[in-house]
Design brief:
This protein folds into two domains: 131 residues, Rossmann fold (3-Layer(aba) Sandwich); 200 residues, Dehydroquinate synthase-like - alpha domain (Dehydroquinate synthase-like, alpha domain, Up-down Bundle), CATH 1.20.1090.10. Helix 12 crosses helix 17. Helix 2 links the parallel strand 2 and strand 3. The radius of gyration is 20 Å and the shape is globular. It contains 17 helices and eight strands. With 341 residues, it is α/β, with parallel strands linked by helices. It binds zinc ion (ZN). The site of zinc ion (ZN) has 8 residues, from helix 6 and helix 12.
Amino acid sequence: MKLPRLLFKEQKLEDILRQISDKDTIVIADDYNFEIIKDIDFERRDIIRIEKASKKEVEKVKKNTNYITIIGIGGCSALDFARACGKEGCNFCAIPSILSTACISVNKSILYENDHPIVKTTLSPKEVIISWPLITSTEASELKKWSASGFGDLFAKISAIVDFIYREGKISEDKITYTLIEEFISWNNLLNLLQILNWVNEKFETYDKDTLKKLAIWLYRVGLENILQNSTLSTAGEHQLYYKMQEQQKYDRRLPTHGQLVSIGTLITAKIIEKKAKEDILFKKLKRAYKKLGLPVTYKDLSNIHVEKNHIVAGIKAMEKQYFFLSTFFDEKLLDETYKE
Ligand SMILES: [Zn+2]
């Protein structure tokens, strides 16, 4: 299996497109990026503007258009759509315009069928190209929101690790500690998310180019782990909660974002560890990091991104009860303790 390469480029999107696109290329772009590229003069078969990653629309493109190269430009919906267009002999190049989730380098797409999300294994990118002019052209508050979401998706893996240790490792809930998570990460040679958590708490100041470069590398690395490893280690209860809440509340995908939503399950998971193992290190570190990054840490923060307490309660209720660490040990009092001012 060929793994994607991550490339950083100082070139503008138009120059990159002129280099990598040809007459057998289709370009998939979301609304925002479609407007940017539609008048650029570069060789291509077609540019397809997409609103969301709909399974039906993907099938239409696959059936009606001939192409060899697929270029996806935008956030996760555009990249999910683009990689799902993969056919025999195709190659895919991802150009994320925001660093909002680990979706930049994975081989899975979330596609929507009648508003229901389904996860499909699709094409992993040959290249993930980060164009600095494109990434940094995002307006400051949007850049902050999307990049914070990227960190939210990154740290969601901590909760997935806890779930894995609990379920697959059959470790009882009171034995899951910060040190055990640390050891698990090192035994399995995973990206050291606890070190990244420390970096945020000690060094992070703002979403400058240096931070964004680190974030891109980390998201890319987690994406590779998702391709190579057990899928139950990639995402777990925190992502299940996201699916349930999204399904029930039908949020606008721009607010709350995927990363903001998965950050909720991760923080509650850390609170459960605090209660069960009687150790608050992970919770304190996460909460402090979330605050610095701009992820929700209070009910008021949640309300600002259109998430209410009852949404979380209803979402967890809809999860498979005894399967996930999060849904097994959740109670409402714990939620209050997680998000109290
Ligand atoms: Zn995710």
